[in-house]
Amino acid sequence: MTKSLTPAPDAASDRTPQRYEGRAKVTGEAHYPSDVRLPRTAHAYLHVSRIGRGTIRSFDLAQARAVPGVIDILTHETLGEDIRQTPAMYQGGYISDSVRPLGSAEVAYWGQPLAMVVAETFEAAREASNRINVTYHPHPAPSADMGSEGAVTQALEPMNLAVGNFEVAYAAAPVRIDADYSTPTQHQNPIELFATQCVWEGDRLTVHEPSQYVNNVKFGLAEQLGIEPERIRVVSPYVGGAFGSKGFLTQRTALVAIAAKRLGRPVKLVATREQGFTVSGYRAETRHRVQLAATRDGRLVALRQEGWELTSRADSVAMGAASMTARLYACPNVSVRVNTVSADRSTPGFMRGPGEVPYGFALETALDELATALDMDPIELRRINDTRTEPIGGLPYTSRSLMRCFDEAAARFRWGERTKPPGSMREGDWRIGWGCATAFYPAYAGNASARVRLSADGRVHVSSAGHELGQGMYTMMAQVAAEQLGVPFEQVTVSLGDSDLPPAVVAGGSSSTASVAPAIMAACDAIRRRLGIEGASPSEIMPAMKASGRGVVEELAEVRAHGVDSIAGLYRGKAVPSGGVHLPDRVQFALGAQLVEVRVHARTHEIRVPRAVGAFAAGRIINPRTAHGQLVGGMIWGISSALHEHTEIDPRNGSYINANLADYLLPVNADIVDVEALMVEEEDPLVNRAGVKGVGEIGVVGVAAAISNAVFHATGQRLRDLPIRLEHLM
Ligand code: MOS
């Protein structure tokens, strides 16, 4: 098999700028938050619970304190009320969960921080942590799984949606599907660990922490510590992977801030890989029941999806993407419901395509089952049910290129050579299966601001508190400013990832470019106005600048996203991206087609994915190189999600038994062969001024269903639970 992981997209010609920070990253000049060296730094180490629920009776810290170099040990007893109880983000607050850091003797989940040691060295802090002795009051085994007896199911009524009469239409239809699906717990596992460094200068605090939302950390921490937000600066110029796990303030940051205050020294914490599994949120396990009914010619007449999502006892968190699966296809009778299942676990959070991945897996696998029942090609089934309006509110899609995506992907894949019966394609010992699924992700945007400075010599500086997670934010910001002002890309410098810069939205919901690009454009408009050449083309700007005799023109602009009521939320670190399914008059979605080939060995049942072709329509693509990286990376993650990843839980104590990169299965180079992402041209002036829908997450959506559907096509075995492993095919 030839290997062609990232064929350069045609559009990535020499005119497409290379990654702005690429050189800094490969030469080690890029300093990530934990690389920052501060004089006299003390090192912190978290001591986390080794039970799944219970109450602490006492700490024995004598052995720990005896370790040379130990300076301080924080516990709920020594900390007092220094950190305030604040609402979690799901209740309108900032922090990712509502367990107060070292707030009480209660243990809510395995891996909960119970103490933090501060020492002269990392090694001394770790050694002392190992010598902490915690005794607990007698405690029962936790209910850590969705299926465990003590887990409590609760319907989330506000997430229910319905149109028409599902029950009647379903009962009357000639062809029906009714099946259950499940997806497992997964963890983001960014290579950069969860690090925090805090340093006080007088009453001013600087936090160096990899973050997808520096203003969220600033305002949330201010609330926890009871100080003015203006006294806190959060700096995060590079993030070494996040995928949702660094989106919001977590318990650790306030602990490090307090320790630094008590010591009068900078304090640095780097949570271990294992601790990372409970330090931040994760993708919770889900279950689904999907019922579909259609006419004999394949028109959907009834669609029902009910989801169950695991959450913690403390917080009711649900990704609830039934609001999207309900809107994907033409169907007169739709009913979707969402439930949470509370268990003794840490609070889940966001992981790339948070709801779209599990809800999409269930719906898109069910659609394949329907195609089989109808003896119909699965792409044709989607074509028959394609729509220009979503069925719940009858709202129009601003643009919808789903079938163009399927057509382009199918041509590239040579889908026409597929023979329909399961098990009908074979090469030697390998059974071959071809499967497909729809990818979807809402086109969100949030409020954002940007400052642009143009100098008479043609140099430009653009700044905004956006974030570089590796997705290409620096490049995009420089490119948009260069294009708007008619200067070469190389003359633009960029600042981002700093709460002192003009505020911007969370780097989540695939919304960064859609939010910040319009703010940069607006700042460039303001520069034109200042030069008295409103509406002038980019090529007229430098001549006007020279003629004006000014040395520098600098302008700040704020842009409010569609559907967001005020710009004010932006300055409080709370602004939730809006758009997609939350607009009163339309829906905005990026859409795509995922086509995969699997080969299942007839004797060993080994599953390989030699080929995946995705085609995506996401409005304007500002930089085809970085966008292509996002899409291919997403698709690879989809393969991982289908065949590899599963955080395993020990029901006896609620622990994660594979909380490390050796045991947590991820695809290696040999698992990934041909992965191709095609970008389908699409113009959508309605989504936002930049015409951008975003590509950060859509690449991962639908891949798992395409793979399970391909496995069915290869073997005739329908697998509805992820991950699919060879033992499930025996
Ligand atoms: Mo992403 S899971 O919206 O950070």
UniProtKB/TrEMBL annotation:
<dbReference type="Pfam" id="PF02738">
    <property type="entry name" value="MoCoBD_1"/>
</dbReference>
<protein>
    <submittedName>
        <fullName>Xanthine dehydrogenase YagR molybdenum-binding subunit</fullName>
    </submittedName>
</protein>
<feature type="compositionally biased region" description="Basic and acidic residues">
    <location>
        <begin position="12"/>
        <end position="25"/>
    </location>
</feature>
<dbReference type="Pfam" id="PF01315">
    <property type="entry name" value="Ald_Xan_dh_C"/>
</dbReference>
<dbReference type="Pfam" id="PF20256">
    <property type="entry name" value="MoCoBD_2"/>
</dbReference>
<feature type="domain" description="Aldehyde oxidase/xanthine dehydrogenase a/b hammerhead">
    <location>
        <begin position="27"/>
        <end position="140"/>
    </location>
</feature>
<dbReference type="GO" id="GO:0005506">
    <property type="term" value="F:iron ion binding"/>
</dbReference>
<dbReference type="InterPro" id="IPR008274">
    <property type="entry name" value="AldOxase/xan_DH_MoCoBD1"/>
</dbReference>
<dbReference type="InterPro" id="IPR016208">
    <property type="entry name" value="Ald_Oxase/xanthine_DH-like"/>
</dbReference>
<dbReference type="GO" id="GO:0016491">
    <property type="term" value="F:oxidoreductase activity"/>
</dbReference>
<keyword id="KW-0560">Oxidoreductase</keyword>
<dbReference type="InterPro" id="IPR000674">
    <property type="entry name" value="Ald_Oxase/Xan_DH_a/b"/>
</dbReference>
<feature type="region of interest" description="Disordered">
    <location>
        <begin position="1"/>
        <end position="25"/>
    </location>
</feature>
<keyword id="KW-0500">Molybdenum</keyword>
<dbReference type="InterPro" id="IPR046867">
    <property type="entry name" value="AldOxase/xan_DH_MoCoBD2"/>
</dbReference>
<dbReference type="InterPro" id="IPR036856">
    <property type="entry name" value="Ald_Oxase/Xan_DH_a/b_sf"/>
</dbReference>
<dbReference type="InterPro" id="IPR037165">
    <property type="entry name" value="AldOxase/xan_DH_Mopterin-bd_sf"/>
</dbReference>
